[in-house]
Each structure stands twice: as C-alpha cells, then as structure tokens.
C-alpha cells in the first residue's frame, strides 16, 4: 500500500509513528468500554502507596490494543521480512504471556498473577528461540561491542547441532542475550507503576532505537521501533494522570522484550543498557532493596521500585513521572551519542 514511498525511508518511519498512534487512539476507547462492561480492572498491591488505592478497578490490558496497532502498522508499512517476523513473534509471544498473567490477576482478584517461576520460564524460552533465530536466520554476529573499548567475541564456545542443515548454538552469547532480554522484560514491567511512566519512557527509547536502526540501514527494524513509539504516544492519551486504562503485563513485558530484541538486531546490546538506563535503574533498585533487606533487615530505599521511593519522599505522581521522562530522555540521548560516535570511528 505504501510502496510508492519506498524511495523515502525517512517518511516511512515518520508515517509508522503517526499511523500507529492514530490506530491506538481510535481503538482504545472501544476497548476501555468493553473492559469496564466486563468488570476487568487493575488489582493494586496492598503494600503500595495508599494514594494508589483509588486506582483499584481501573481497566487494564491496554497492551492488547498497543500490540494490535504495532502488528497492523508494521506489516502495513514495512516489508514482511524474516527480521520483522522475528521481532513481531518475540514481542507478541511475550505479550500473550503477559495477557495470561493479567487474566490470572483479574480472575483471582489479586495483584499477583502467574508465579515468578512460570513467567521466567516463558520469557527465557522466547529469548532463547529469538537468540538462536537471530544468529542462524538473520546472521547476527555473536559479539558484544562496548564503543571505544572492546568487542567481545561470545561465539568462541559454539556447538553446531546437526538439525535442519545445522544450527549454531553460541553458548556465551545465548546466555548474554537471555539475560538482556529477560532483564529488559522485567525492568520495563517494574517501571510500569505510575500513570504514564512506562509508556512515556518507552516512547522516548523507541524513537532513539528507530534512529539507530535507520542509521544501521535496517529499515524494517526502524519501522518496527517507530510503530512501538507511536503506540505508546496513542496509549499515553488515555494513560496520563489520572489514567483511564493501564497497559498491564501484556504491554510492559512485550515492550521490554521488543527493546531487547531491537538491541540484538541492531548490535547495540551494550548501548541499549544506557538508552534504557531508567529501566535498568528501576530493576536495580528492587534487587538492591531485596538483597540488602535480607542481609541487614533494613531498607536502602523508602520503597522499591525507585519511583515509589520518590513518592514516599513527598513528590507528586506527576512530578515523578515528568522528571523520570527527563532522565530517560537524557540517558537515551547519551546512549545514541555514544553509538553514533562509535559508528563514525568504526
């Protein structure tokens, strides 16, 4: 449909943002009405900030519409290449895992859905399948580059399984990608605790990932990242404070997986940790809090994840969200600058 614009790849990326945003904004009101009529709402954690108790019952699973928009717009605007199918496959499968988790929360009327073990098993299975496909189908090199420092060859321990003409299993790279993808999944999920926080931060990060993919001459990935950014913008219209709907694990887990997969395809595994530095900080705050409490029975943060710590310090929810957006923007700009400078030198 958009083949007439094939000679204008920059316009295609811009178009992906706009159309994905419009589709999300058009479908979301219908989805919200359906969720309300079906009494499908968010279950708020009992030990969270008391100000969040008013969010109980707010429609959730907004990530379903975001994924619909991403799938439709990516396939409509971009060519259905193996790269696109792999990115969409990993993202949608993770979203379905989150959907089961969200459904479990609603059905049992509690803030905890699937067991942590069940979610991790599903995430690691998806991450492993994507990593093997990226190496064997897309030809992604099993290396990790720290710009201006060193490129680590994580393919030195590789086993070739004699199946379907031979499947290379680079064990060290496979382990690294699993940690990266599953870590990003749960980091974005942990960030999704305030109205607009995860959607706004992911939107910023995906715009930068689209620019990196475009610079790396992988247009399908740029379009995919752009549709994710557009879906986040459209979702923000309904998720801004006070939120009319939450994305749920359906959205947050899928967005985290998409970020990790884009990092692998564009060979920015290390730089993505800076670009998505806000998510990394949120995840680290939880890990540090848990480990420190187990050892000392004391807390470093007033509450984890990190955004709740600042709420406890007296910041309003909107102040935390806007300031975290700014931090996310600064880190994304820093990561892109590092990538760009490294690509020039390379």
TrEMBL record:
Transmembrane regions: 6-32, 60-78, 84-100, 120-140, 160-182, 194-212, 218-238, 271-293, 320-341
Top-rank taxon: Bacteria
Gene (name only): mraY
Role according to the record: Catalyzes the initial step of the lipid cycle reactions in the biosynthesis of the cell wall peptidoglycan: transfers peptidoglycan precursor phospho-MurNAc-pentapeptide from UDP-MurNAc-pentapeptide onto the lipid carrier undecaprenyl phosphate, yielding undecaprenyl-pyrophosphoryl-MurNAc-pentapeptide, known as lipid I.
Family the UniProt entry places it in: Belongs to the glycosyltransferase 4 family. MraY subfamily.
Pathway it works in: Cell wall biogenesis; peptidoglycan biosynthesis
Organism this protein belongs to: Adlercreutzia faecimuris
Cofactor: Mg(2+)
UniProt xrefs under HAMAP family: MraY
Keywords on record: Cell cycle, Cell division, Cell membrane, Cell shape, Cell wall biogenesis/degradation, Magnesium, Membrane, Metal-binding, Peptidoglycan synthesis, Transferase, Transmembrane, Transmembrane helix
Pfam families (alphabetical): Glycos_transf_4 (PF00953), MraY_sig1 (PF10555)
The enzyme's E.C. designation: 2.7.8.13
Cell cycle keyword on record: yes
Primary localization class, coarse: membrane
Localization (cell): Cell membrane; Membrane
Topology class, membrane: Multi-pass membrane protein
Catalytic activity line of the entry: UDP-N-acetyl-alpha-D-muramoyl-L-alanyl-gamma-D-glutamyl-meso-2,6-diaminopimeloyl-D-alanyl-D-alanine + di-trans,octa-cis-undecaprenyl phosphate = di-trans,octa-cis-undecaprenyl diphospho-N-acetyl-alpha-D-muramoyl-L-alanyl-D-glutamyl-meso-2,6-diaminopimeloyl-D-alanyl-D-alanine + UMP
Protein name as annotated: Phospho-N-acetylmuramoyl-pentapeptide-transferase
GO molecular function, one term: transferase activity
InterPro entries: Glycosyl_transferase_4, PNAcMuramoyl-5peptid_Trfase, PNAcMuramoyl-5peptid_Trfase_CS
